[in-house]
Structure formats: C-alpha cells, structure tokens
Amino acid sequence: MTGFPNGQYFFIKSRANGKVLDVYMGETTDDSNIIIWPQKPDDDNDNQLWRAEDGFLINKRSQLVMDIRGGDLKAHNQRFGYRDGYIYCLADPRLVLDIRGGGSKEGTKIILYKRKESDNQNQLWTIIPVGGPNEAHQIPYYPPPDYPQPGHQQQPQSYPAYPSTGYGPPDNHPPSYGGQVAYPSYEEASGAHHQVYNEGRKAHLSHQLIAGAAAYEAVKAYRRHQERQGEEMSHGFIKQGVAALAAAEIVKLAEEHNWSRDQKEKATRDAQQAAEKYASREFQF
C-alpha cells in the first residue's frame, strides 16, 4: 500500500510485534506520548484509531495530530507519508517512525529515527482500515493556532489538529494553464513573499502569487533546515521536502484568506510545482 486510506480511520500495526500505535493512557492533552499497545476491542479503541488529512495523522479520540517534538521545521514535522511499510516525515523522508530500542513491551515509546534498509522490522507498519470509506470525513479538523516549540527529543507527540504531497512534472516541462506557466517567476515570488508574510490579509494578491510566496517560503525554510543540519541532501529529498513544506504553508494561508476547497487544492498544486522549480535554483541542480 502507498499512502494512507482516504476518508477512513485505521490502525497502525507494527510488523515486528503485532501491536498498534496508541496514545499513552488514552490522554487527550498536548504532548502525550505515542506508544505501542495490544489492539483493543471495538468499544474501547478510539485512542488507537487514526485518520489522515493533508498528511496529518489525527487521533480519533483526542482529535489531536501526531507531532515530532524538537523538529527543526516546526509545524511541518506534523506531516507524514506512507510507502513500502515506512511512515516517514514529509519534511525529511529519511526519518521514519521507529519503536525505541526495537522493543515489544507494552508501552514502549515511538521515536523518529533514520530509515534502515536492513534489520528494520521495528520501522515497518501495516495500515488496517476500519469502518466505512467516508466515516472519518464526518469530523472536521482545524489548523493549530501556534506551532510547537523546538525541544531536544524527537518523539511523536499529540498536538492540536491541519492532497497528499506528490511530485510535479520534470523541470523542463513546467505545468501550464491555458498555455501559461502556473506559477510566478522566482523574482515575482520573492516580492510576493514580502507582502504575504508581512502584510497578511492586507496583501491583495492573486492566488498564483500567494502560492508562489508559499513556495518561496518553503525553499528558504528548507535552506535554513539544511544549514542547521550541516549535511548535504540528495536532489530527490530536497524536492520532496520543499513540496511538503509548500503544501503546509498553503494550509495556513488558505485558512487566513478563507479560500474554498477548490482554491486551496489548486494553490497547493501550484505551490508544490513552484517550490520544486525554485529549489532547483536555490540548491543549483
């Protein structure tokens, strides 16, 4: 399976020991730890069920999203993807959910750890959908008012709850609408960025320019992240990372500007495509 189920709750079961992700003591407060625990019966398992919205994993009981404490990219470290059994951080796909110490004891904490290609059963998960395909859509979710502050550990946490990130076409075939490139130039995006991130709703700009500003912000955020980490990243990781960051920026801006769902989805596509293009310039590939 690639990607999380759409519109359904699901268990996240460890392939190493058969236990599922759970919230410690069923807590419904911020900073609750995520652990492994035996799957519970139907009438007592809401804290073990999750749904995916825009890459955010939202707990059924608390309606809080899974978050990684201490992530450099703040709100962007709340977004995850699922591929080949790994649940990975969209901001840095090399980091995946792991069971601390590879343990199987009830209550063992979940951590974020570098992906392993072998001896990796404690990093592999099976998604088990439950209920009808649209059940999860009946409950709304809302973006968090503030981002979590960086700490020292990288452990999945619960934090108040925000179309999966994809890849754009090759750089030499930019997307177009009506024969025109769907995103502004790098220079235009830089100017729009100043207005969008300094004037907020007072900045009367087109959706395209706002999407360009979000893409510009994503690329600069990823640059700061790379400089803090002090290591080079592959072009593929950079493109995937900036696309994820751009999508998260659009979530915030769409809420701020009261965009419709269609406007938000189009702006997300534009911002992701622009971010990949701008990254080619910023990181020179």
Structure overview:
The protein has helices spanning 186-199, 207-229, 235-257, 261-282, and strands spanning 9-14, 20-23, 34-37, 50-53, 56-59, 64-68, 80-83, 86-89, 92-99, 110-114, 125-130, 156-160, 176-177, 180-181. The chain is of the alpha+beta class and 285 residues long. The protein has two domains: 9-160, Trefoil (Acidic Fibroblast Growth Factor, subunit A) (Trefoil); 176-282, no CATH class. The strands form six sheets. It has a four-stranded antiparallel β-sheet with strand order 7-8-9-10. The chain has a two-stranded antiparallel ribbon with strand order 1-11. Strand 4 (50-53) and strand 5 (56-59) form a beta hairpin. Helix 2 crosses helix 3. The protein is globular. The model is unreliable at 70-75, 137-155 and 157-181 (pLDDT under 50). InterPro entries: DUF3759, Ricin_B-like_lectins, Ricin_B_lectin. Residues 259-269 have a biased composition (Basic and acidic residues).
Structure at a glance:
Residues 259-269 have a biased composition (Basic and acidic residues). The chain has 285 residues and is α+β, with helices and mostly antiparallel strands.
Topology:
Elements: E1 9-14, E2 20-23, E3 34-37, E4 50-53, E5 56-59, E6 64-68, E7 80-83, E8 86-89, E9 92-99, E10 110-114, E11 125-130, E12 156-160, E13 176-177, E14 180-181, H1 186-199, H2 207-229, H3 235-257, H4 261-282
Pfam families: DUF3759, RicinB_lectin_2
Protein name: Ricin B lectin domain-containing protein
Biased composition (Low complexity): 149-164
